[in-house]
Amino acid sequence: MHSEHTLKLANGLAFHYYDSGAPSGSTDYTTLVGFHGLGFNSDGFEHVHLYAHQNNLRTIFVNRRDYKGSTPYSDGEVADIQAGNETAYGLDVARVLGHFIDAGVVGSGGILVMGWSLGNLWTLSFLGNPGVIPRDLYEKIQPHLRSVIVYGQFVYPPHVILGLTYDQDWNPFIDPESFSQGPLHATQLFARWVSGHFAHPEAGIAPSGPQWTKETTEFTVDKWSSEEMARWFEPAAVLHCQHITPATLSRFQESAVAQIQRAVFDASSAASYFPNTSVLYISGANTIPSCLYGHREFARRVKDGEAARRVKLALIPGGNHFLHYEMPEVFVKEIVERCRAD
């Protein structure tokens, strides 16, 4: 049974988190620290905790700011976010990791840091912004950080972090009809759509781009009770600082592309900044179209020798954007086996 806690940093920021606790009798366990995506908080990872101890893993999932129990953003910080300035995200991640190290939470098996969907903006800001983290904090984290896990892509729509653009993939935040009814309506549509299971043809990517539509009939959130939906999905947080519009999308894209370039593909950065840290990129094969397209494009860049870090890729058959809910045992096994192989 996992437990809930709230940590408070020296600067006054609070972060609520969910912790499986350490495996009984183990000191060499690995600690997975995860940051959730857009709208869906870290409480929704509860099934992952069930498979932690049998894999000598401690799982901790942190609520980002503006979500349950964590410090809200100020108006000035919201303005910075909407302007595309996300360097503070990485500093928040580093401070949280430093807190866990100081608290004796981390076993000798090291740390895996994971971002899910939009949460990858936080973790890639951490890995992709040398100089943002104070040297003493960097030196505290560096010996422990084994891998950064990119789960389910990392900005909305997810493919834009790779600098890709195309029009074939529908999403509610850039669909005029959906957005014309207001951001809350678009956010509610997003919650259902992003949890869909999409059957992608093997030849789904043509030279001109992906050839898929928005159509699907199976959605993860349809399996949830109203109580679970209320507990795991927080539209107010989206509306406060992170609702996506065509105008804000380009700003997210610009900063996100720079982050992934520095974090994974910049040789100078990778050689001097967490040089021993690898990257695992994991997605479900039946995720939303833009996620799969992004996964394949990332894999192409790695195959072409562009990666400056050790990179592993995992594409889970039958999995959607909610591997942690739909396939938690498989999800944990993939992470443990691929990251521990390093």
How would you describe what is shown here?
The chain is α/β, with parallel strands linked by helices and 342 residues long. Helices cover 38% and strands 16% of the residues. The strands form 2 sheets. The protein has an 8-stranded mixed sheet with strand order 1-2-4-3-5-6-9-10, with helices on both faces. The protein has a two-stranded antiparallel sheet with strand order 7-8. α1 (46-49) links the parallel β3 and β4. Mean pLDDT is 88; it is low at 203-211. It comes from Mycena chlorophos. Residues 35-333 form the AB hydrolase-1 domain. One of its GO terms (molecular function) is hydrolase activity.
Write the layout of secondary structure elements.
Layout: E1 3-8, E2 14-19, E3 30-35, H1 46-49, E4 57-62, H2 75-82, H3 87-102, E5 111-116, H4 120-127, H5 135-141, E6 145-151, H6 176-179, H7 183-193, E7 205-206, E8 209-210, H8 226-232, H9 235-242, H10 246-265, H11 267-272, E9 278-284, H12 289-303, E10 311-316, H13 323-326, H14 328-340
Parallel strand pairs: 3-4, 3-5, 5-6, 6-9, 9-10
Antiparallel strand pairs: 1-2, 2-4, 7-8
Helix pairs in contact: 3-4, 3-5, 4-10, 7-9
Domain AB hydrolase-1: 35-333
GO molecular function, one term: hydrolase activity
Protein name: AB hydrolase-1 domain-containing protein
Gross CATH architecture? 3-Layer(aba) Sandwich
Which series of helices and strands comes N to C? Answer: EEEHEHHEHHEHHEEHHHHEHEHH
Measured distance between first and last alpha carbons: 29 Å
Q: Let me know the CATH homologous superfamily.
A: Alpha/Beta hydrolase fold, catalytic domain
What percent strand?
Answer: 15-25%
Count the DSSP helices: 14
- Residue share in helices? 25-40%
- The number of domains: 1
Outline type: globular
Mean of residue pLDDT? 88
In quaternary terms, these chains amount to: single chain
Q: What's the arrangement of strands in the largest beta sheet? A: 1-2-4-3-5-6-9-10
CATH topology: Rossmann fold
Specify the biggest β-sheet: 8 strands, mixed
CATH class assignment:
Alpha Beta
